[in-house]
Amino acid sequence: MGDTDANLANAIAAIDSLEGVSVSETSSIFRTEPQEKKDQSWFANQVVSVICSEYVTAYNLLNNLLKIENTLGRVRDERFGPRVIDLDVLLFGNNVIESEDLIVPHPRMTERAFVLVPLQEIAPQLQFPDGRGLEDVLANLEYRVDADQIWQ
C-alpha cells in the first residue's frame, strides 16, 4: 500500500526518535508473498534491532509501535489484508512474556521466513530464549530466497 520503502523508512525514523530507544541495525528490505490472503500485492518486510534504556519495557515499546502505525495511517479492518505498515515486537532481549496484550518471542515468528531471513541478516548467531539457534529454526522451514524475494 503506497510507497512501502518510504513507509518502512518513516517507521524506522519514528522508532529511532522514541525516548529511550535507538535503532542499532536494520536488515535489507525483502519482498514476500502474502501468507494467508493470497490475492493482494506482495509485502515489504524488514527487521530492525533497537537498544532500549532500562526504563523502556516491552509494553512501552509495543504501545509506541502501535502509535507509530496509527500515525502512518494503519487501519485494522482486514486480518492478513493489505496494510500501510505492521510493526511487531519480535524479541525483547531474552525475556519471555505471555500476557493478553503481548507475547514475546512473537508467537509465529519461528514459522515465518519473512521474519527469520531478515533477522538472520542482522543477527546470524541469535539464540531464542528456548535455546534454539536461528539457523536451526530456518532449517526446519520450507522457503526460497532469490535476491530480495522470499517465497514460503
UniProtKB/TrEMBL annotation:
Residues 79-90 form the 7,8-dihydro-6-hydroxymethylpterin-pyrophosphokinase domain. It holds the Pfam family HPPK. SUPFAM superfamilies: 6-hydroxymethyl-7,8-dihydropterin pyrophosphokinase, HPPK. It is an enzyme of class 2 (transferase). One of its GO terms (biological process) is tetrahydrofolate biosynthetic process. Transmembrane segments: none annotated. InterPro entries: Hppk, Hppk_sf. Pathway: Cofactor biosynthesis; tetrahydrofolate biosynthesis; 2-amino-4-hydroxy-6-hydroxymethyl-7,8-dihydropteridine diphosphate from 7,8-dihydroneopterin triphosphate: step 4/4. GO terms for molecular function: 2-amino-4-hydroxy-6-hydroxymethyldihydropteridine diphosphokinase activity; ATP binding; kinase activity. Keywords: ATP-binding, Folate biosynthesis, Kinase, Nucleotide-binding, Transferase. It comes from the Bacteria. Its EC number is 2.7.6.3. CDD domains: HPPK (cd00483). Catalyzes the transfer of pyrophosphate from adenosine triphosphate (ATP) to 6-hydroxymethyl-7,8-dihydropterin, an enzymatic step in folate biosynthesis pathway. Belongs to the HPPK family. This is 2-amino-4-hydroxy-6-hydroxymethyldihydropteridine pyrophosphokinase.
